[in-house]
Write a structure and sequence with these properties.
about 450 residues; 5-stranded mixed sheet; 4-stranded mixed sheet; globular; disordered C terminus
Length: about 450
Amino acid sequence: MQTIEEKLIIQGGYPLKGEVSISGAKNAVLKLMAASLLPNDISVIKNVPCLSDVEIMIDVLQELGAVIDYDKTNGVLTIDSRNITSVVASDIFVSKMRASFVVLGPLVGRMREACVAMPGGCQIGERRVNFHIKGLQSMGCKCDIKDGYVYAVANELKGAEICFDIPSVGATENIMMAAVLADGVTDIKNAAQEPEIVDLANFLNTMGAKIEGAGTNNIIITGVKQEDLHGVEHTTIPDRIEAGTYMSAIIATGGHAYIKNVYPNHLTIFTGKLLEMGAKIKLVEPHTMEVSSNERLHAMNFITQPYPGFPTDLQALAMTLLSTALGISVVTESLYENRFMHVSELWRMGANIRLNNNHAIIKGVDSLFGTDVNCTDLRAGAALVVAALSAKGESVIKTLRHIDRGYEKFTYKLSSLGANVIRVPVDYQNDEIIQKTLV
């Protein structure tokens, strides 16, 4: 039996030019989809990217009884939650993607019970669910973990004061959604502050929820009744990580291009670091950035931190840029212990990187060289694409399923900027390329 995979073939050395438009934020839309379970109504989400993670979340919601229509051409998702028939989110789907675990909060809020499989996704390190469970327990929910599932029952769901040891994005979202239909006031301290959480709060407030403080480290939710909630129409914010990816690609190739449909204030610290390295970035319209680079970049140091600090999702991309920067850089990954898996692939391309626990010491080389590499996770995959675009010669990038989780029309968008990149199916059994380009 033949196993058909796909790979990218990239000829490096082509400066990216033109313009690219950023899609809706993956990390926002998945949570909006989960939140659509709260009202006994129909909600419409716009600017939805066509991604494998979105497809998985659709499967999760349909398993619960939601009726979904997905217009991929226009990026419009209609979710009818009037007939939720199940509280079980099985491991068939949840184990494939960690973000789907956020159905726990809305199920507990609306149905007062849930049975949700433990989450999966990229293996970038330990991402426990204890903050989610402790938060729900503080609200009166009984939670047990058995056979790979979290079982939650709340005869009474009451507002509570909840303080996280660290600002967990998923736990903040789960507790916020559960608290929408709890009795009383829930006060989340040391809450995550990501823009995607603000987008979720705006979605919920439009729905009839009462949430204050989203975007700060203290979020207060005043519970409402089920009948107070209604369906909404909402447009997802742009994907700041996708924007950062294209910024990196343009700079790495010495290009000059415009990035449209971007919220610059979501990328403040990343943009600042790129400027420190010597890139040129200018805001030409409220949601359009002009990005260019025509000189060798300079070394710099950074530490990944929860938002508004340097985003861990852009760490691998920044490291790729630093691999050819002038001088020695130090990158410290403070959030996930396995988020240096891309380093071994950059070594294969000629990068000079030394690892010391959660620190990467990078001595910039004159250039990277094309070779065969494998994506180890979503953001590492994007970083390897950027490395290949800037490298001398041809690179072949495999295991594209990781990239497909988070980048809409990646090959098409890169090609529109002038990249020499094609996506081809490969017969790995016979090691023969099927000569058909997929864009």
